[in-house]
């Protein structure tokens, strides 16, 4: 029985594929569909907190997974009165154990700003 690859070996392979531009690519149709849903969520809406779970639900509907720097599923929080974050994405089907192979041409961008009213203005899109 072949041995299970180490975490470092999987990460190295994923990075080599991404650097060579050989990883998966997010298609225009899916990107447009995600961005349309994100725009509908955030356009003219202000939030008591950053709607990260709703944003991630939209990605999940399209079988896209947000990633941490080590290509595992993203787990974290957003804080502060203003900020921006770029999160790498991967197709759900690219899972290798706990790791995913990221898209070479896509990332989730989230910008937020807490207004005087105490509500957040949020912009989210996939580039």
Strand percentage, roughly?
15-25%
Please write the string of helix (H) and strand (E) elements: HHEHEEEE
Query: Total helix count?
Result: 3
Which class do the helix and strand fractions yield?
alpha+beta
The strand count comes to 5
Estimate percent helicity. Answer: 25-40%
Strand order in the sheet with the most strands? 1-5-4-3-2
The global form is elongated
Structural domain tally: 1
Low-confidence segments, given as residue ranges, are none
SSE layout:
Layout: H1 7-19, H2 28-42, E1 46-47, H3 52-61, E2 64-66, E3 82-91, E4 107-114, E5 120-126
Antiparallel strand pairs: 1-5, 2-3, 3-4, 4-5
Brief overview:
The protein has 127 residues and is α+β, with helices and mostly antiparallel strands. The chain contains three helices and five strands; from the N terminus they run ααβαββββ.
Description:
The chain starts with 6 loop residues before the first helix and ends with a strand. With 127 residues, the chain is an alpha+beta fold. It is built from three helices and five strands, in the order H-H-E-H-E-E-E-E. The protein has one domain. A five-stranded antiparallel beta sheet has the order 1-5-4-3-2. Helices cover 30% and strands 24% of the residues. A hairpin with a 5-residue loop joins strand 4 (107-114) and strand 5.
């Amino acid at each position: 029985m072949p041995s299970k690859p180490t975490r470092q070996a999987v990460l190295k392979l994923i990075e080599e594929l991404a650097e060579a531009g050989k990883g998966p690519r997010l298609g225009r149709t899916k990107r447009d569909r995600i961005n349309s849903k994100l725009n509908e969520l955030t356009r003219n809406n202000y939030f008591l907190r950053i709607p990260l779970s709703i944003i991630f639900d939209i990605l999940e509907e399209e079988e896209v997974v947000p990633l941490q720097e080590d290509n595992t599923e993203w787990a974290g929080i957003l804080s502060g009165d203003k900020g921006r974050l770029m999160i790498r994405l991967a197709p759900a089907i690219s899972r290798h154990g706990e790791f995913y192979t990221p898209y070479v041409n896509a990332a989730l961008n989230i910008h937020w700003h807490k207004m005087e009213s105490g509500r957040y203005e949020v912009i989210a899109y996939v580039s």
